[in-house]
TrEMBL record, chains A, B:
The organism's taxonomic lineage, starting at the top: Bacteria, Bacillati, Bacillota, Bacilli, Lactobacillales
Residues reported in the UniProt entry to bind Zn(2+) 1: 63, 65, 145, 216
Names of required cofactors: Zn(2+)
Name under which the protein is recorded: Ribonuclease Z
Cofactor binding note: Binds 2 Zn(2+) ions.
Length: 309, 309
């Protein structure tokens, strides 16, 4: 599982940072990639990565501001173009209005996609568990921005324990159905009468990862709830230390507030994105340093950076 | 007057070429820049130029395919952001539908622009002279694509002759109102009775430039009419020599057909754009070479290249 940041700028692109998008790469787990937000030019950024658009099976939109959605029609259209690849369907989760935007754009431009899009439009009173498969769950909660904005908590379900096959074989268990029973946690009795206790040969289930990805927001309790014990929290940092007032006015957070959220939630790692184009590289170092006084394991991410989770 | 190509790819962006847009820089003439098409990521490309978005006063859209319009909402939104600059109004010309697309995008994203946009929606039966100011005229005609697509002919009106002030002064004409009268083409009588013939001191009016910018199209008579005696013809070249059949099928032209249009129209210079991502740099040289056998003054343009007109 990796996270790759495709656009880390706030509001407008700069030469160094494009507008918002990030990819959660679940290739090892489910052979899919999930996109969070899709600002203009996301498809151009994807060209600079190893991500194959067809692998993108779900897109989660945090809110409808242009710097988070204007890349959707182009991405969806270009995704249809790749010849010789299977046309895989796609699901889009986001605030009510996202469907109208996408369908109007595709209709006006005469785009007919060879795959199906399922829209899951979310309302403030219809959040909570918004998606569940056998391996993942996604919870959503309302943040505190100038328009309805969503934070997502992606929970990987606990992973089965792995079987110590060598030890099992050494104990005289023949390959075959008995192996499978032990792997599924059942004790078995061998032909010679010995009982094999499954838990002796199975590592305990491993807890799945928790990844919290927030949209634009002021500091708010919902952020803390979404990020409780998260392995990774991705939080906006449109403003820096001391900018609390202007951040609040514009519905955003400072690096310090993001760090407070991470600390209060007991998150393990904090990535700051949605960084104002005002910040130069020296300021970025300062953003990180200041935040680290509250939450040490913090990093201000750049476009195209990828992290193992 | 300059032309700068912002995106020269066909259909989808590649690493080297973004989707369609070009800027006609009329800064010396009227202190404005006109944009032709605005594919996704045009605002990112503009960041790499000296163009100030506020100077863009008119946008001409050739057709509604996504690779020609999906950059409009983002460009229009970001154009509003620039602090400390005058908020200048903007006009958009393009096929019926462009207004719905722009307004839906701005509405869904909650964007409220601090400047005014005037839409001039064009229909196949409402083309011809679509814009006229004291210095420029723009004609439009219908091309032959898979959807309604427009070609534009930008005509700079003839420029007044310049006054040979030094010669006039040497003839004993004092600075002042008499100078102005001669500049305006009127003969004047000096206090000493001598008559000054204006045309002796004025260079003849200089013909203005003609710039023809076409959208996606098969080879068609309308292209030739739009490009008659043009100083510059910008023509798509989605396909190469020998690809006539597939070009026709998809509503596009080859480099050879573009060269034929330039030759038949008596244009002076041909720029080929809208180049398929299939073409590598070696192929691009071949595209140019092949076209030059029909029309020698041809060039396959790249993103960000600028030419004096």
């Amino acid at each position: 599982m990796q996270i790759q940041f495709l656009g880390t700028s706030a509001g407008q692109p700069s030469k160094m940072r494009n507008v918002s998008s990030l990819a959660l790469k679940l290739l090892d787990e489910i052979n899919e990639v999930w996109l969070f937000d899709c600002g203009e030019g996301t498809q151009n950024r994807i060209l600079e990565t190893s991500i194959r658009p067809r692998k993108i099976s779900k897109i989660f939109i945090t809110h409808l501001h242009g710097d988070h959605i204007f890349g959707l029609p182009g991405f969806l259209s270009s995704r249809a173009f790749q010849a010789n690849e299977e046309q895989t369907d796609l699901a889009i989760y986001g605030p009510v209005g996202i469907k109208a935007f996408v369908l109007t754009s595709l209709k006006v431009s005469g785009s007919r996609l060879p795959y199906k899009i399922t829209f899951h439009e979310l309302k403030p009173d219809g959040l909570g568990l918004v998606m569940e498969t056998d391996k993942f769950k996604v919870y959503a909660d309302k943040l505190d921005h100038t328009i309805f904005c969503i934070g997502y908590r992606v929970i990987q379900k606990d992973l089965e324990g792995t079987l110590d096959a060598e030890a099992l074989r050494a104990a005289g268990v023949p390959f075959g159905p008995l192996f499978g029973q032990v792997k599924n946690g059942h004790n078995v009795t061998l032909p010679d009468g010995r009982e094999i206790i499954a838990s002796d040969y199975l590592s305990p289930p491993r807890p799945g990862k928790v990844i919290t990805i927030l949209g634009d927001t002021r500091k708010t309790d919902a952020s803390v709830r979404l990020a409780v014990n998260a392995d990774v929290l991705v939080h906006e940092s449109t403003y820096g230390k001391g900018d609390d007032r202007i951040a609040k006015k514009h519905g955003h957070a400072t690096n310090m507030q993001a760090a407070e959220v991470a600390r209060e939630a007991g998150a393990k790692r904090l990535f700051l994105n949605h960084v104002s184009a005002r910040f130069l590289s020296r300021d970025i170092k300062q953003l990180r340093y200041d935040a680290s006084t509250i939450f040490p394991n913090v990093y201000v991410v750049n476009d195209l950076e990828e992290f193992d989770l």
